[in-house]
Design brief:
Blueprint (H helix, E strand, L loop, with lengths): L10 E4 L5 E4 L11 E6 L6 H12 L3 H14 L1 E7 L1 H17 L5 E6 L1
The structure holds L-tyrosinamide.
L-tyrosinamide binds next to strand 3, helix 1 and helix 2.
Length: 113
Amino acid sequence: MTLRPILMSDKRVGNDDETSVITKTRAKTQRPPLYKVLLLNDDYTPMEFVVHVLERFFGLTHQQAFEIMLTVHKKGLAVVGVFSFEVAETKVAQVMDFARRHQHPLQCTMEKE
Ligand code: TYC
């Protein structure tokens, strides 16, 4: 029989008859919530501008950017990427600011996954 050392994380549950049960506590690693960044279609923003935004702020290749732009154009919206809250918030702000400065109505939002 192999003996296991009793750890501080073990809980000793005493029974009335002085026998005991040792339960193992498993450390639950909490993953941070993730957020989808969505790009929305509109009738006015030029396709090349959207492609540029996707390359510039999401590090996509021209081909990837063009494909996602076309998906948004055809389906109304697409997920551009999945990030931590802070990164997603920053991307949305960067896209919205860049579109506003160029006077395009492009909309970008985030949503908890
Ligand atoms: N629908 C736009 C057009 O025809 C192109 C477009 C694509 C706009 C994606 C926004 O997120 C968007 N010029």
